[in-house]
Amino acid sequence: MTAHIILASASPRRQELLGQIKVIYVVRPVDLDETFRPDEEPLNYVQRMAAEKSALGLANSAAFGLPVLAADTVVVLDNRVMGKPKDQHDALAMSRQLSGKTHQVYTAVSLRGRGHDQAVSITDVSFRHLAEREILAYWNSGEPAGKAGGYAIQGMGAVFVESIKGSFSGVMGLPLFETAELLSRQGIEFL
């Protein structure tokens, strides 16, 4: 089968979600500086990152002649971006901060092919109060490492989620409603 798009991400979750809607893709991850700029708002940051990833993906994959899809996801608590934990101390601190609170997950999707289209999903995620032993056990599971906000909603982290208002797939890293709209706008087949 011929690929429809290039996915500028190595994320297994994004690949799984694209597969869910039957998009045929080639994986060509990009590597760029994801430094948060001083005074940059979380929404601006996530949109910038997705746009820069798709632009770099298009530049790196011009020979393929396919549209490039990229995304970026951040966890935001009190208008502060919580990135991927650097170590155990950082992960435990994130879990403690999220405990008993509602935070937002912003996921921006950027598609470059016939022009540039972009969309953003913002989801409210409420965590129940977490016991210290749960926080430590979760870290010891290995799941929080490399995850925005130090948790994976599609994994064991789901037991911490009391409620969600918005896009589950957006929290996973690729909001399917918004992604499908972008693909449709550019005439890219799925399903």
UniProtKB/TrEMBL annotation:
It is found in: Cytoplasm. GO terms for cellular component: cytoplasm. Its main location: cytoplasm. GO terms for biological process: nucleotide metabolic process. Gene3D superfamilies: 3.90.950.10. The record marks R13, T73, Q154 as: Important for substrate specificity. It comes from the Bacteria. It is an enzyme of class 3 (hydrolase). Its EC number is 3.6.1.9. The keyword Electron transport does not apply. It catalyses: UTP + H2O = UMP + diphosphate + H(+); dTTP + H2O = dTMP + diphosphate + H(+). GO terms for molecular function: nucleoside triphosphate diphosphatase activity. The active site is at D72 (proton acceptor). Keywords: Cytoplasm, Hydrolase, Nucleotide metabolism. Nucleoside triphosphate pyrophosphatase that hydrolyzes dTTP and UTP. May have a dual role in cell division arrest and in preventing the incorporation of modified nucleotides into cellular nucleic acids. Belongs to the Maf family. YhdE subfamily. This is dTTP/UTP pyrophosphatase. The lineage of its organism: Bacteria, Pseudomonadati, Pseudomonadota, Gammaproteobacteria, Methylococcales. The gene is yhdE.
